[in-house]
Amino acid sequence: MSGVQPLVHARGLVKRFGDFVAVDGIDIDVAPGEAFGFLGPNGAGKSSTMRMISCVSMPSAGELRIFGMDPAREGPRIRGRLGVCPQLDNLDPDLTVRENLTTYARYFGLSRAQARARAEELLEFAQLRDRASSRVEPLSGGMKRRLTIARAMVNEPDLVLLDEPTTGLDPQARHLLWERLFRLKQRGVTLVLTTHYMDEAEQLCDRLVVMDGGRIVAEGSPRSLIASYSSPEVVELRFGGQELAGFVAPLDGIGDRVDVLPDRILLYAKDGDAAVSEVHRRELVPSSVLVRRSSLEDVFLHLTGRTLVE
């Protein structure tokens, strides 16, 4: 990021609520045009960090600059250049889909004609043109989420903040939303998002930090994190309801490490097929075997010892 001023710059950023430390001294930089993610379980400090970046919650300690400005002194100027998609949809149920966009646009000083034109662009982007005259309440969860993101774009922001954008959506709606966000990336829009879905972080983020207990425990691109904290391949072994802890010793030495989950054993190896052959050579008989590439879930298991979705 040498020579380029980051849109978000934080050093030693802290957020306390009484005696509870939600964010514990994190350092972040987000470059223009980047899709940057905060990955972690519920309670990791992701949303508290996003609220500080969006200038609705002041830091308890540390340095924070957005567009080079101090949120404590220039919050309104910063908020005028942000687009915010909160964790929970807060659309106006008494307005139509189109009116949710045009009314919000007026808050940013757009004329009625400009607001109508901008709303039509965003209805097309969100694939909601055929529901433009509908009230919000009958919309599906995916439609409401797309409308919330479209509303966040109404002021043509320099930075869009998305707090767990696909939580609660079915797989089809999630993938459609990913496609919309990818289009924003292609336009050069800077995205900062939080998620506890590992596949979402891999799909959308150029770079991310893994948070746990209010701290950053790892940082990098999805592929670099996988290369640093996991093996190229993972073998998933299931043993038909048998006590899994008893298989750890017999599997010792096959691959780099073994993780025992409630329903399966993960065997980390450079060559998954060779590892499976060694499992069989040792006369172990799993009920099912799956060889796959490593993922961010494996990174998180290595860093924290638990799965992300909690």
Structural class computed from helices and strand pairing: alpha/beta
Largest sheet: 6 strands, mixed
Strand content: 25-35%
* Radius of gyration computed on alpha carbons: 22 Å
Mean of pLDDT = 92
Order of SSEs: EEEHEHEHHHEHEHEEHEHEEHEH
Low-confidence stretches: none
What name goes with the CATH superfamily of the largest domain?
Answer: P-loop containing nucleotide triphosphate hydrolases
> How many discrete structural domains?
2
Question: What is the end-to-end distance?
Answer: 34 Å
CATH fold title of the largest domain: Rossmann fold
**Tertiary shape:** globular
Major sheet strand order: 5-6-7-3-8-9
CATH architecture classification name of the largest domain: 3-Layer(aba) Sandwich
- Secondary structure tally, helices: 11
Classify the oligomer.
single chain
Q: Just give the CATH class of the largest domain.
A: Alpha Beta
User: Helical amount among residues, as a percent range?
Assistant: 25-40%
Total E-strand runs: 13
Main location: membrane
Subcellular location: Cell membrane
GO molecular function, one term: ATP binding
Pfam families: ABC_tran
